[in-house]
Specification:
It is a single-pass type I membrane protein. It comes from Carlito syrichta. Keywords: Angiogenesis, ATP-binding, Cell membrane, Disulfide bond, Glycoprotein, Immunoglobulin domain, Kinase, Membrane, Nucleotide-binding, Phosphoprotein, Receptor, Repeat, Signal, Transferase, Transmembrane, Transmembrane helix, Tyrosine-protein kinase. There is one protein chain. With about 500 residues, the chain is α+β, with helices and mostly antiparallel strands. It has a domain at about 15-135 and about 210-375: Transferase(Phosphotransferase), domain 1 (Orthogonal Bundle), CATH 1.10.510.10. It contains 13 helices and 18 strands. It has helices spanning about 5-15, 35-40, 85-105, 135-140, 150-155, 160-170, 195-200, 215-235, 285-290, 295-310, 325-330, 345-355, 365-380; strands at about 45-55, 55-65, 75-80, 110-115, 125-130, 145, 190, 210-215, 245-250, 255, 270-275, 275-280, 295, 400-405, 420, 430, 440-445, 485. The strands form seven sheets. Strands 4-5-3-2-1-7 form a six-stranded antiparallel sheet. A hairpin with a 2-residue loop joins strand 11 (about 270-275) and strand 12. Helix 8 (about 215-235) runs antiparallel to helix 10 (about 295-310), helix 8 (about 215-235) runs antiparallel to helix 13 (about 365-380) and helix 10 (about 295-310) packs antiparallel against helix 12.
């Protein structure tokens, strides 16, 4: 019997956390909901402006009086269903609530604060409010405010000067006219306001005018690894780790979100239709695409793609590559993305480690925390010295890129003038690091396909980010069977 789209969505999107390797939505009844700990009186919740809306759910900003036994009023985000929600949609939100109670608290996860489940009103899930939106859109807005180190950022702030000039002229400043298609409080919902509107309302601390540096990018990567290390320790598999599902809070803290209902995959172009299910194909490991197997190690693969997003300042993964059968097959055969624009050799090597063909050979999140922590410390010590990011791995006509497993030593030390080469456009001049290559490993990249790549506007977005519908994908072994969970 064919399932409804809502049921399929719940099936696919639940986090798996189960000693019997059963999707959590099937064992949700086993998880308790402690009303004495989490129940919050609706009359103490004042709903405010809409932050996002989806096919059957919405997120609103709210003021909670006395939540978590606080004597003050706290700004929160409230997830709730739209009027006329079905029983399966109610179950999806209740499942999300139980997942959040099970996971517990961590700085780098969007934490549960309370819930309204009693009869007499709508089901509400109250979570932390992250005022700066999702990481993908934030990084895109910072492309003119990125500097390699703090020293350069302190001396050059052209975008800030431009914005101040616009203000003096009475114009409304906009950061690259970026508008968000992701939820402000929880990604997957369409935002009700553009990023520039949010900036105007929320930027009393000047956050959006501040430049970001390489240290910030490494810090975001480190924090996400910490959050995922925590989730994996709780035997939780996320299955949709991406920059759109990372929220930015105060003090430059990032938090992992999207535990179930939060995604509105039926409107989000990052999700590719495969049969009756939509999948975040660009972020999925080969074993998830072909065999529907999810594990902490498939989350590690997705983390590698997330790193690519971060160090390309919100770029769309696999730029210009069509999401079709050939893409999936080439990915399975070992073809990978080249280094992102601002990826250092160390960072790119971490990505390649995360994209290892054998899931067992991919690093654990604990190892990634250690590696990123070391890089963060090294970057702080190095700040102010000159170095060039590896924004283009040395690539020949064959389309092979080269990675070096061991070039941490000396990479930040001696500055040698780097050669320049153009990737085709006069405006797109790239640089390579002039470091000594050690133990060269040949990595075939998708870039060799781009000269012959074509796109059909009926099926693809201009940037090739999604396939809306293609019979080719139906040839894979994806069926309506449940996802397989493998707990490491």
């Amino acid at each position: 019997m064919k399932r409804s789209s809502a049921e399929a969505k719940t099936d696919y999107l639940s986090i798996i956390t189960d000693p019997d390797e059963v999707p959590l939505d099937e064992q949700c009844e086993r998880l308790p909901y402690d009303a004495s700990k989490w129940e919050f009186a609706r009359e103490r919740l004042r709903l405010g402006k809409s932050l996002g809306r989806g096919a059957f759910g919405k997120v609103v900003q709210a003021s909670a009086f006395g939540i978590k036994k606080s004597p003050t009023c706290r700004t929160v985000a409230v997830k709730m269903l739209k009027e006329g929600a079905t029983a399966s949609e109610y179950k999806a939100l209740m499942t999300e609530l139980k997942i959040l109670t099970h996971i517990g608290h961590h700085l780098n996860v969007v934490n549960l604060l309370g819930a309204c489940t009693k009869q007499g009103g709508p089901l509400m899930v109250i979570v932390e409010y992250c005022k700066y939106g999702n990481l993908s859109n934030y990084l895109k807005s910072k492309r003119d405010l990125f500097f390699l180190n703090k020293d350069a950022a302190l001396h050059v702030e052209p975008k800030k000067e431009k914005m101040e000039a616009e203000l003096e002229a009475g114009e409304k400043p906009r950061l690259d006219s970026v508008t968000s298609s992701e939820s402000f409080a929880s990604s997957g919902f369409q935002e009700d306001k553009s990023l520039s509107d949010v900036e105007e309302e929320e930027d009393s601390d000047g956050f959006y005018k501040e430049p970001i540096t390489m240290e910030d990018l490494i810090s975001y990567s480190f924090q996400v690894a910490r959050g995922m290390e925590f989730l994996s320790s709780r035997k939780c598999i996320h299955r949709d780790l991406a920059a759109r599902n990372i929220l930015l809070s105060e003090n430059n803290v990032v938090k992992i979100c999207d535990f179930g209902l939060a995604r509105d995959i039926y409107k989000n172009p990052d999700y590719v239709r495969k049969g009756d299910t939509r999948l975040p194909l660009k972020w999925m490991a080969p074993e998830s695409i072909f065999d529907k197997i999810y594990s902490t190690k498939s989350d590690v693969w997705s983390y590698g793609v997330l790193l690519w997003e971060i160090f390309s300042l919100g770029g769309s993964p696999y730029p210009g590559v069509q999401m079709d059968e050939d893409f999936c097959s080439r990915l399975k055969d070992g073809m990978r993305m080249r280094a992102p624009e601002y990826g250092t050799p160390e960072i790119y090597q971490i990505m390649l480690d995360c994209w290892h063909k054998d899931p067992k050979e991919r690093p654990r999140f604990a190892e990634l925390v250690e590696k990123l922590g070391d890089l963060l410390q090294a970057n702080v010590q190095q700040d102010g010295k000159d170095y060039i990011p590896l924004n283009a791995i040395l690539t020949g006509n064959s389309g092979f890129a080269y990675s070096t497993p061991a070039f941490s030593e000396g990479f930040f030390k001696e500055g040698i003038s780097a050669p320049k080469f153009s990737s085709g456009s006069s405006d797109d001049v790239r640089y390579v690091n002039a470091f000594k290559f050690i133990s060269l490993e040949r990595i075939k990249t998708f870039e060799e396909l781009l000269p012959n790549a074509t796109s059909t506007l009926d099926d693809y977005q201009v940037d090739g980010s999604t396939l809306l519908g293609s019979p080719l994908l139906k040839r894979f072994t994806w069926t309506d069977s449940k996802p397989k969970a493998v707990l490491d």
